[in-house]
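Changelog note: in this version the structure field was regenerated for every chain. One regenerated record is shown below for reference.
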Amino acid sequence: MPVEKLLKFVKKHKKILPIALIPILILVFFVFPKNKSTVPTSAVENGDVVKLLSVTGKVASESSVNLSFQIAGKLVYLPFKKGDTVSANQTIAALDQRSVQKNVQDELLSYSKQRATFEQTLKDYNASKISDAVSDTIKRTLEKNQYDLEKAVLSLELDALVREQSFLITPISGILTRMDATATGVNAKTTDVFTVTDPNSLVFQIDVDEADIGSVTEGQTVDVTLDAFPNDALSLTVDKIDFVSHTTTSGGNAFTVEARLPENSNYRVGMSGDADVIVDSQRGVLTVPSTSIVDDSFVYVKKGKYFEKRSIDLGLQSDTDVEVLSGLSEGEEIATDSNLVLPGMVLK
């Protein structure tokens, strides 16, 4: 067996084995490099500390309208298709007007008759010199005619409104981005929606959690990168912050924040992207890496072969850097990763 042969060899040469191992040990410890534990360091220097609020968002239109018919009816006019450009006050759809016009004419006749009856009854009442019993009867008749007249006026106004609502007229210029009804000759429902979106009023919308909204103000810079254009970084400005919160899909409370996008025909409503809101910054100050901080307010300063644990005062902190208010001077060398500094490396 190999093991048995090895044991026999060791017993037979046990006196010379220690002497033979000495050159091997010398080779290992002095010729081959040692596996030392090294601590990376860097010099304290002036720089910028920028605190960011990173969120995701989408492109939306600040000016967009959804139009629907107030009554159902047969579509007879549909001059545009989805994606067409429309102008403000243009009719984008209309229902059959023949039945509506007939109803309006009927109501006009009814209104005229009611008005004539009412005025005659009022005249008779004012001119009467008869008993109280007859007068009460005329009063009741007058009140009934007044009710019938008001009902007729209401019906007339309602039908006039219905006629008006048979036309869909866009109040803004833009692109027809939604058409639930796409062909004439079919019945349009009151739930059918026609959407007009202004492409010149695009904004980037983000939802900011209520815990962070206090650090966001109008005028702050927002760096946005759209997923569709990853190489085009946009520097925008916070233009609007919603006054009322809304519930997110996860059940939390958030506020919608908007930043206006520059005019660009390549941008589309619904495009997603990432945004960094610059909530605070300090320029040209002493900085150290966040990884160099130990116990919240100490750093390890290089002193020859060892490190000195020194207390410092911290200012603004970002995800990567920390502002140093006092305790360090520019050029001093510190451990950039405090976790690699072993107890034996620290001066007592």
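Spot check on this record: Confidence is low (pLDDT under 50) at residues 28-36. The two ends are 56 Å apart (CA to CA).
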